[in-house]
Design brief:
homodimer, 415 residues, alpha+beta, 11 helices, 27% strand
Chain lengths: 415, 415
């Protein structure tokens, strides 16, 4: 298990190279190729301002097939007009040349600064260079994972394997995301009209998933949509949906496992959920300036959208996030955030616990050991759970604290 | 004009005293009294978690008459259950005793920490003490203005006078608000059912207005509601609607001016708007950790709610606020914030200017002098104006930048 990585599923090769787009010396162009036209699905940002690669990517994944993913970091190719679209298509054409596939079977991605035309000379050289270094080792997987990072401090990877009868199946993935995080991903069938809006959240987050499962694109679309809802769309660092958010999965079909039973499909769905959730959690943990993961759980809400609205209002409150930074059990900010979410909420019929200690019940403070709760809040994972008695719906949102470092990173990151 | 203050309108006296509720030595109990049962109106938070004084205040203003306002700072009397309500009523009873009026004609207010029972011994002594120091001088007005402050660095006051034919009329006010700011005030007629929801924003903000105009409570309610929409409800520091937000106006009727014409009423409405806007602007300028006021204007939107949604999405984006802190013309964050507001928006048909310089037009960057724009953004008032071509609606939101000091204030402010 420990050795599983993005390229463990059969049929995939990848690499990442430094092409000079990032200001620091680190891989910034990545290429992932499959040995066949893989069944594929992708979910993209629902921001009305979307980058050129998102436009092109929606087109290319529309037929449910992809052979490669080409990505650059350091420049988002967003708000770049016709030139941007031309550049995104050029990236696909070059990647196709290297991968030996059609340009329309390549998904392009970019992440970085908005509003600057891509330095295409560097990007082109980088893509061609990738052709010299493709492989399927752990090192190759790490190079690809590193090539998509921007302000991330940590590489983000996850993989699980499971068996269908006696046949092994692997689902793996890598992702990036640290700031401009609050994805509101929607699965795409290509073109504008077919984007199904999944109620979600925001980031520039990119996630690429591989599997050797022999599963068709219709199932992949459905399962990726559900998985995103329970993972990337439940993360918020700064509640800012990016122009470039993308999550894509390619299924090579190398595994002989048969997915002709509900049980087999369930195993796959669970594995996909597990990988996406592990990746999403890493985004929250690596949020810009974050010192801890803050898990907001709302239970017993009148309906699912109310549960989500409250969880997100709490998670996005700068006051709550600062209190978490200070390990301060300031429950008043949490309860009042729930009260302003614009959904049914009765403070006189709920309880709030912080990492296991009840601090508020039925409209009033509950005496608690402040030093003990503060010590719990100083840990690298904190849970705030609001238990209502208005219904049976629940929601969980992953966020992080708001620190001075977040301000430093975002006030000093100059365009 | 320069000498006008809260107590300039005839019939009002006030003061503020230090009762030991605040940790620092500054006035923390204030009392404002009118020499008669004044026509009155008040708007309160729409947060479902509202403090005891808000509940009692809604009851007391229901008949459109108030004789006094009693307020304490340092403790919000929120989430304090039955004891909290009892304490709020006790504050009214004591204030009534001092003012020589009915307890049901007193509006109570509290601001400060949530979830702690009021130190009533101190509060009671403070209210009684106020009785010894009531007056109508500038100094008395300042003492009352200071008594409502919490994390505010500056006293907030405004006043204007105008003439109806030859008779002078004055409208004046004081307010507080620095953090937990994003008011969503709704005018109250008393009781839960009669709260009319004004689409708005959030804070703990308190605002008290006086006038000598002879205007009835029905008109006051209507005009206060409109004034709040154009002032307090357009301010956001951290988009957090408080449990205690309150704006109230008392009209003594001392001025002989007749308000029996549309023109006279218009003059009053304009004066009220001007005072409320001047006060609201001061809240944005004194936002916790703020180094500048950031004015977000959206024009040419498809409808008013779309204009507001975009303006608020931009104003509340931590990424935009941090860029403003760094005087960075990072227009990509502004445009993408508009794009995720969930309303009609076409980036290919809009233009964005920063303090007068166009930086983005029709989906793409516009070349501009970065040093010059950065210098403009370093001033203490910055304007970001998004001009769409989707309709004729517009909205303005006042906010401030997000600085490390905001984090310091809110991470280190311990419960």
């Amino acid at each position: 298990m420990a050795d599983l990585h993005l390229l463990s599923p059969g049929g995939f090769r990848a690499t990442g190279v430094y092409a000079g787009i990032k200001t620091r010396h680190a891989p910034d162009v990545g290429l992932l190729v499959c040995d066949r036209r893989a069944a594929a699905a992708a979910a993209f940002t629902t921001n009305k301002v979307f980058a050129a690669p998102v436009k092109v990517g929606r087109e290319h994944v529309a037929d449910g097939r992809l052979s490669a993913i080409v990505v650059n970091a350091g420049n988002a190719n967003a708000c770049t007009g016709r030139q941007g679209e031309k550049d995104a298509r050029r990236m696909c054409a070059l990647a196709a040349q290297v991968a030996g596939c059609e340009a329309t079977d390549v998904l392009p991605s970019s992440t970085g600064i908005i509003g600057h035309v891509l330095p295409m000379e560097k990007v082109e050289a980088g893509i061609l260079d990738c052709g010299n270094y493709l492989g399927n080792s752990l090192e190759h997987a790490m190079l690809f994972a590193d090539a998509i990072l921007t302000t991330d401090l940590k590489r983000k990877t996850a993989a699980v394997e499971f068996k269908v009868r006696r046949e092994l199946v692997t689902v793996a993935g890598v992702c990036k995301g640290s700031g401009m995080i609050g994805p509101r991903l929607a699965v795409s069938r290509g073109g504008k009209s077919s984007v199904r809006s999944l109620k979600g959240r925001h980031a520039t987050m990119l996630a690429y998933l591989t599997t050797d499962a022999a599963i068709g694109s219709a199932s992949l679309r459905q399962l990726l949509g559900k998985a995103c809802e329970r993972s990337f769309n439940t993360v918020t660092v700064d509640d800012h949906a990016s122009t470039n958010d993308t999550a894509a999965i390619l299924a090579s079909g190398h595994s002989p496992a048969k997915f002709n039973s509900a049980r087999a499909m369930k195993s796959f769905a669970d594995a996909l959920d597990e990988v996406c959730q592990a990746l999403a959690y890493q985004i929250a943990a690596d949020g810009e300036g974050a010192t801890k993961v803050v898990i907001i759980k709302v239970k017993g809400a009148a309906n699912e959208s109310a549960a989500r609205a409250m969880a997100r209002a709490i998670a996005n409150s700068p006051l709550v996030k600062c209190a978490m930074n200070g390990s301060d059990p300031n429950w008043g900010r949490i309860v009042s955030a729930a009260g302003m979410a614009g959904v049914p909420f009765n403070p006189d019929r709920c309880a709030l616990s912080l990492s296991g200690t009840t601090v508020f019940r039925n409209g009033q403070a509950v005496p608690f050991d402040r030093a003990k709760v503060s010590a719990e809040l100083a840990k690298n994972e904190v849970v705030a759970e609001l238990a209502c008695r208005d219904g049976k719906s629940e929601a969980t949102v992953w966020t992080c604290d708001l620190s001075k470092d977040y301000v430093t990173i975002n006030a000093d990151y100059h365009t």
